[in-house]
Amino acid sequence: MNRRPFLKLVSALTIASALVASAASADTIRIGAVAPKTGPLAGGATVTQWPSIYLWVDQVNKAGGLTVDGEQMMIELIEYDDQTNPGETIKAVQRLATQDDAHFIIAPYGTGLNLAAAPLFDRYGYPQIAVSAITDQQADLSDKFPNMFFTLGTTTALAADVVKVLSDMRDAGQMGDKVAMVNVADAFGIELATAAKPLFEGAGFEIVYETSYPLGTQDLSPVIKGAAAAEPDAFVAWSYPPDTFGLTEQAMIENLDVKAFYTAVATPFPGYGARFGAAAEGVLGAGGVNPESPAFMEYAAAHEAVTGSKPDYWASATTYASLEILAQSIEAVGLDRADVTAHLKESTFETILGPISFDENNSNADFWTVGQWQGGVFKGVASRGRDGTVPVILKDGWE
Amino acid sequence: MDILITGILLGGTYALIAMGLNLQYGVARIMNLANGEILVAGGYFAFIAYTSTQLSPILTIFLVAPLAFALNWLIYRVMLQPLVNRAKNRGQLETDSILATFGLSFIGVGLMLSFFGGDYFSYSFMAVPVELLGSTYGANRVLSFVMAVLMCGALYVWLNWSRAGLSIRAIATAPASARLVGIDVKHLSALAFALGGAVTAVGGALISTYLTLDASTGVVFTLKALIIVIMGGVGDVRGTIVAALLLGILETVVASLLDPGLTLAAAYVMFLGILLFRPQGLFGKKPT
């Protein structure tokens, strides 16, 4: 078989594409993105992370690019699927830094994957504006990795504000002090439950039912039945997406009679409201936004127009805000990564969530903590320093 | 009583997950690691049919079954038949088919991602309580249990009393001798594989009424199915049903009486026990 023509063709194509690539990259900003498209966290990243990235790139490029040293530069997005595998996240970040020569890399999705990638961001000097990475270790981490920034809050703040919302309801005489608390036996669920337990006890609540269940449990009815048997006034689940849906459905079926029903991750997803409809009314969940603010409404409309899906009512907007922050910093100081990091530490940025600045621990101190489905929209009912919280309503049955 | 019924309902779910794999592995000798993807695809179909046209999943399964049957028949003929033809013995076929279907599972995930995206898909169908002996259960779980019973029953009757079914069992027992008595092994193996795929996809459509799935969840179901098939004994419908029910009841008993956190541990202890004391599975035949 004669292979020569084929070889010639291949080498010609390779050279041509290399030329095209280098011609294009002369005046584009290469932005790397690595997050799950497959694996256990893919469902969350598909709602929260990827669409906001696509929207941001689309909007920046339609507006003619970013202004760097007086010159308009378009964004070229280089994306990798890490399969929800920390090893793959690390490989992808390394590849983006060394092979693709990315100017900046968007922080990965999920606490574990962000922590896995942090040493590499640090080694190659990339600022890492983490969004979906909630932890209480922000002081230690920012000490170890001075390029790492946090935007979505801390575990303790999320747990403490749930306790506060429930305490306020109890003190107003709306319910008693019996709480059923369950959690998924995985990193974030365990961390939240560990943080919440002493807070509940300190606030004078009686934990009448407490348990954990493995990730991927296919029948949660024993959990809801056990909680129902303890006759709690409030049900709190530090849950992940599939079990957030599963617990809610079981609570509907068992007609779990509580004044407050809380599930954590994925409660603010539009899919939650779509699935449970009127039954979702009054369900409390992690996060929140001010859905009535003009900036959020404009963002949500653009999100749906460009990506075909609705943003969630929590981390989607924060993901977009983290990209706004990056863009503003690049426009202010250029493409030098050390300059951008220094600029991030000292400036205040105007975002769709309102102004954001980073404290001495590289943490954003203003974030949403608890939200509630009210009239088909998930509204923030508790926050740290954000405007637009609405009063909490009682959970009134599942009809 | 309440615990027992909850466990039996969960067992029905597990039977739906594992029944198809049992047919594929027991008769066609294909350890199909893409089993979970077929299940998720069936779920997607039901989801799309329900959200776009309000078509009830009970009706959707009559569409899903022939489609999945055709698809799996094609997969077998195009991709797996060459492996069967070249395999010198059963061990080699198993290794080859594990590798091939492992790759197939990635293709399945990739295809579903590109067509439907990676978002969770979940909808509310019959999420209403039904009362049985004084306790309440989800109507969708009860329905899927009834369907599982019907399907397993039909399969059992077909395998034991129809000519094709008996031939399929003959292949499961002695593939080499089956050919000597005039059974078209090639044809019937393809049939069994396709039938297994159809059963799995129908199971997926039913399961999607109460579980939240996404494009990458298939592997979870593949693993569960593997455990159940191996516990029940390869190639025996009864074994799969009994193992699925046992697993469902055990997990519910542990979750209700001890702690939901221990369900996984309990399931694997039971798996270990069966492997230790009956390595051929509950209903499996000892290799001669």
How would you explain this protein's 3D organization?
The complex is a heterodimer of chains A (399) and B (288). Chain A is α/β, with parallel strands linked by helices and 399 residues long. Helix content of chain A is 46%, strand content 21%. Chain A contains 14 helices and 15 strands. In chain A, the strands form 4 sheets. Chain A has a 7-stranded mixed beta sheet with strand order 8-7-9-10-11-14-15, with helices on both faces. A 4-stranded mixed beta sheet of chain A has the order 2-3-1-4, with helices on both faces. Chain A has a two-stranded parallel ribbon with strand order 5-6. In chain A, strand 2 (66-68) and strand 3 (71-81) form a beta hairpin. In chain A, helix 3 runs parallel beside helix 13, helix 7 runs parallel beside helix 8 (187-202) and helix 13 crosses helix 14 (337-346). By secondary structure, chain B is mostly helical. Chain B has a single domain, classed as ABC transporter involved in vitamin B12 uptake, BtuC (Orthogonal Bundle). Chain B has helices at 2-26, 35-53, 57-86, 90-116, 139-161, 163-173, 175-180, 185-207, 218-232, 237-258, 263-277; strands at 129-132, 135-138. Chain B has a two-stranded antiparallel ribbon. In chain B, helix 1 runs antiparallel to helix 8, helix 2 (35-53) packs antiparallel against helix 3 (57-86) and helix 6 crosses helix 8 (185-207). The termini of chain B are far apart. Chain A binds chain B through residues 36-40, 42-43, 45-47, 84, 182, 185, 211-214, 216-219, 221-223, 225-226, 241-242, 245-246, 249-250, 252-255, 266, 269, 271, 275-277, 309, and chain B through 2-3, 6, 9-10, 13, 109, 113, 117-124, 127-129, 136-139, 141, 210-212, 214-217, 220, 248, 251-252, 255-256, 259-261, 263-264.
